[in-house]
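[audit] Reproducing an earlier prediction to check determinism. Same input, same settings, fresh worker. If the tokens differ from the archived copy the diff job will pick it up downstream; this log only records the rerun itself.
[audit] input (196 residues):
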Amino acid sequence: MEKSFIVIQWQEIKKKNNRDAVFPKRRKDDEDNWKRDVKYTLQQKPDGNTMPIWRYDQNPIIKRDAIKRSNSVFNSAVVAYENGFAGVFRCDSKSISMNIFAGFSKDGIHWEINEEPIEFHGDNEEILHKEYRYDPRVCFIEDRYYITWCNGYHGPTIGIGYTFDFKTFHQMENAFLPYNRNGVMFPRKIGGYYAC
């Protein structure tokens, strides 16, 4: 079943004075649904660091040649999945072609990225046409993981697809034609719709 999406602009959100109406508080059962039995290690804040966040001292976690064909790997989109993590990664080939690949990790540090790019399925061959794919984002909504990326379709646009298992991927209609990129799904409904 296809979901409905709308585009919102930040100015529209700021106009609303009732923040909870736009960004409803997360319920306790929502929190429980997001908890995972995941094994990972937190790195202690380095001595003398006064900032609220810091870089992991073993960066980069994923090396630029993580798969045989890659020249670089970046813009990873990682989510908790089953008893570990799943992700979608931009891997540029040695000839600098851009595509997105799925990968898995038990601890968020050691990754196995598929050697072949994600192959999307869909009813319309025209929608599946692409010149490049890069800058993926992943968002869990209801019963599936939505992926957005910059899709080369007669120029850059926002590609939208989904997966249930990070093995089979389904592509939906390209969003925001022409010439847009790097859309992110918002995992809560606003005015009865999901937003990108």
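[audit] rerun output stored. Observation attached for the diff report: The chain has one domain: 5-33+62-195.
[audit] end
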